[in-house]
Design a protein that fits this description.
- The chain has one domain: Alpha-Beta Complex (Nucleoside Triphosphate Pyrophosphohydrolase).
- 24% of the residues lie in helices and 37% in strands.
- The protein contains 4 helices and 9 strands.
- The strands form 3 sheets. The protein has a 4-stranded mixed beta sheet, with helices on both faces. Strands 5-4-9 form a 3-stranded antiparallel beta sheet.
- Strand 7 and strand 8 form a beta hairpin.
- It is globular and about 40 Å long.
- Its EC number is 5.3.3.2.
- Belongs to the IPP isomerase type 1 family.
- InterPro entries: Idi_bact, IsopentenylPP_isomerase_typ1, NUDIX_hydrolase-like_dom_sf, NUDIX_hydrolase_dom.
């Protein structure tokens, strides 16, 4: 069975489910999460999405991101995916949320209510190469500089997360 996402209204209240690909073929608001981990120097752990991903393959983004499954708590989903993608277990706390839309060159859409979690981690991740192509730690200052010089190298939601950190 195809993976399902949780459809939500503008207040993040669940209103149903839909196949993940269907929600990205026709822009349908659904619940998502993004995890940002920081090391003891205050640098963020970034991942480069695997080139084979259905959208944004080969782009740099925050430590981990995905969708909770139906009936799955968003924090539990964030912890599950952090382990699946990066091989990391750490304490997470939700810092903010936002809604965004994006259109991709391949005809897919994002329309997500994104919960953003922060945590700490200073070691090397054990990446799942089906999900993650590369990783690095960067200071927020270096992220902002590279984002301004090379915005095409980053996912649209990551750009918005960095903007939110600046406000």
């Amino acid at each position: 069975m195809e993976e399902q996402v949780i459809l939500v209204n503008e207040n993040d209240e669940a209103i149903g489910t839909m196949a993940k690909l269907g929600a990205h073929l026709k822009p349908t608001l659904h619940r998502a999460f993004s995890v940002c981990l920081f090391n003891d120097k205050g640098e963020m752990l970034l991942q480069k999405r695997a080139s084979g991903k259905y959208h944004c393959g080969g782009l740099w983004t925050n430590t981990c991101c995905s969708h909770p499954r139906p009936e799955e708590d968003t924090l539990n989903a964030a912890n599950r995916r952090l382990m699946e993608e990066m091989g990391i277990t750490t304490e997470l706390s939700e810092v903010f949320d936002f809604t965004y839309q994006a259109v991709f060159d391949n005809g897919l859409f994002e329309y997500e209510f994104d919960h953003v979690f922060f945590g700490t981690f200073s070691d090397k991740p054990l990446i799942n190469t089906e999900e993650v192509e590369d990783w690095k730690y960067l200071s927020l200052e270096d992220i902002r500089i590279d984002l301004s010089r090379n915005p095409e190298k980053y996912t649209p939601w990551f750009k918005l997360i960095i903007e939110k950190l600046d406000n």
